[in-house]
Amino acid sequence: MLMPRFWIRRALATLTGVLISLVLMLPGLSQVREVPRPPVAEGVPLSSQPFYPALLEAVDTWEAVPLGEVIGDNPRSTLLNFYVVMAEVGHQMRTISASAKTDAGFNWSPAAQQRIDRLQKRFNLAVEALNTSEFAKSVRSDRAEEAAIQLKQVLDYVFGNSRKTFNIPNHDAILRLNESLEKDVTEWRLPGTAIVLSLDDSNDAQSGNYLFSAGTVQQVERMYEEISTLPVRSTPFTTPGLYDFYSLTPGYLVPPKWYLRLPSNLRQLIEVQIWGQTLFQILFSLLTIALLLLIIAWLGRRLMRTYRDPASSKSGEPPGLQADNIAWWRVLLMAPILPLTRLSLITVDSTINITGTPLVVATFGFYIIYFLVASVLAYLFFEALGRTSAEWMMYLRGGTSTLRLQRISNFVMPICRTLGAVAMVGLIYQLLLFLGLPAETVLAFSAVPGLAIGLGASKLLGNLFAGLAIQTDRPLRVGEFCRVGDNLGFVTKIGLRSLELQTLDSKITIPNAVADDATIVNFSQRSQRSDHSPSQGTEMRYALHQPLSPEQVEDLLHYTRAEVKRRPELMNSLVSVERNGDETLELVCFATVELHGWQAYMELREALLLRMQKIEDQVLKSRVVVGVSYDTTAEQLRQIPLWIREVVESDPDFTLRSCRLMAISEFSYDFVFDFRSSHSSHARFKDGINRMNQDLLANFARHQVEIPFPTQMEVQKD
């Protein structure tokens, strides 16, 4: 939130400094404007030119015909029509603008608006006489309008300052000239100038239309710069300062009324030229561009946030629906940028009326933003469409599992993403055309990926057909535990080109052609559940570290089987013991389990291994050997099993299985008793052992039964 405010303060400070500087510069600027121009050189007056009667005839024609055609079938018709229409446009622009202070209301009156519309139509007719094919497509219309106005002022200078007469050929003159030449005339140059009129896409001089050539239109700006400061003889057709009036005021041909009603001092201030533009145009253009970039940055940051933390957007929804919503949310985040970019372009171009090179640079920038955002938006749209299509396909097939959605998505998403990539490439090529690259160059660029595709077509097609075979035969599916060649892992993705295996230590991408040729071992089995969830067998082996009695082995199996039954994820379980070659025992547990990844698989094995270790410890501690001294009476020896049962079964979770006098050792009578535990955890089991031992010692002390210390004899020889 602090960044926009910071930049706004910086912009205001910069704007204030620029205004102060310009105010200090105004006296000097006014002095520059007041420098007297050199006198106009003597030349042939326009009225003395051979084409002048035809020029007056053209004036009468345009006054009688509301809408005519500027383009003619000969150089004279096109040139004079253009000159007459542009002269009217220049005069009407000045006349309508001068009426702003007398025209009532904030907006133009209907009569004034009608005059403006008529003026716009005449101007468009004049612009059509220019061959603008050399201009970039994105700025073609704007550059054409500027070129028409600049060309009019260049013709004012040429016709007003020429020292010789111009014989502009008409249709008959062109025909006579073609009869005398082996090749028909396709262009005509105004003598002493770089202004050329050429046939429009036709080599037939009898039927083609003449336009101002593409080279002429492209050089108009340079020609205008050469004559812009030179004096021009005044005639009824001259329009001095026409381009300055057009380029240094906001709006289109006629500035808005609110601008024309501004005080002259204020207009003088804001129309100070900087790089060919006014202060007003520069400041408001920069403000428009900055506002657009801030909005794009804000929306782009929101978009990136959906990739960094996609789960934060929606909570409590299924993963498939959540991903679907996130995909469409990304489309909604990017979509507003397109109309905002278009609106910014219209504002800078038509409302603020930036012209010349700054307009070209700004327009290129806007079009680059527009097409890049459009290409990203197209890709995001097809991706969202793919996710929605996969979800609907799952519902239509009657399934609701996440795994089924993933399997359908792995088939649908590559197709949609391919379509999105094609749309992106098409939009990028369109951008290159709009930036002025020739179509031949764009086609040459397109040939590069075509060549690359051709060189890799064999492998690509092989993987494609192999992927279709895997999708059809289904030797493996997403979520299943398989061995593909020498690689063992869970299948996480099956695409049109490759499949992915999540192994224990990494993710492996295997081309479909390689997978199709390899031996596939599917460890998963199809369950009979309604959702067809995959299950695979898992085996756990635990080597027993100490020898066990038959009773202890029985308890070991009892505890392990009870633990397996308590786990609902373990199905079809089997628990047994095996004897290894070194005569040690090994606890074996096999079960069918539904898992979806290495993490769940390893977590289950870890939990089972830890529980087996605790079970072994519990079994070992469930057999206790207690030795009593030889001073114990026979009656006490008969009572000891009863005392032990009383102590053991005082804990409701302990059950005494047996208690016997099993040995007469060197120092004691040894009683061995076995018990079983039903405690809920291993920690409670050990707490029960602690209480049982303390109670047993207290009971023996109460009945005066002694537990002897180990005795050691030392024999000394002389």
- Give the biggest beta sheet: 5 strands, antiparallel
* Model regions low in confidence, pLDDT < 50 over at least 5 residues: 1-8, 18-38, 312-316, 526-532
Number of continuous helical runs: 22
Class by helix and strand content? alpha+beta
Mean pLDDT: 80
Helix content: 55-70%
Q: How much β-strand is present in the residues?
A: 5-15%
Widest sheet, order of strands: 9-8-7-6-10
Shape: elongated
Number of strands: 17
Count of the separate structural domains = 6
- Beginning-to-end CA distance, first to last residue: 99 Å
The radius of gyration over CA amounts to: 47 Å
How would you describe the overall organization of this protein?
This protein folds into six domains: 36 residues; 216 residues, no CATH class; 176 residues, no CATH class; 61 residues, Roll (SH3 type barrels), CATH 2.30.30; 87 residues, 2-Layer Sandwich (GMP Synthetase, Chain A, domain 3), CATH 3.30.300.100; 80 residues, Alpha-Beta Plaits, CATH 3.30.70.100. Helix content is 56%, strand content 14%. It contains 22 helices and 17 strands. The strands form five sheets. Strands 9-8-7-6-10 form a five-stranded antiparallel β-sheet. β1 and β2 form a beta hairpin. α2 packs across α3 and α12 packs antiparallel against α14.
Can you give keywords for this protein?
alpha+beta, 22 helices, elongated, 14% strand, disordered N terminus, 718 residues, 4-stranded antiparallel sheet
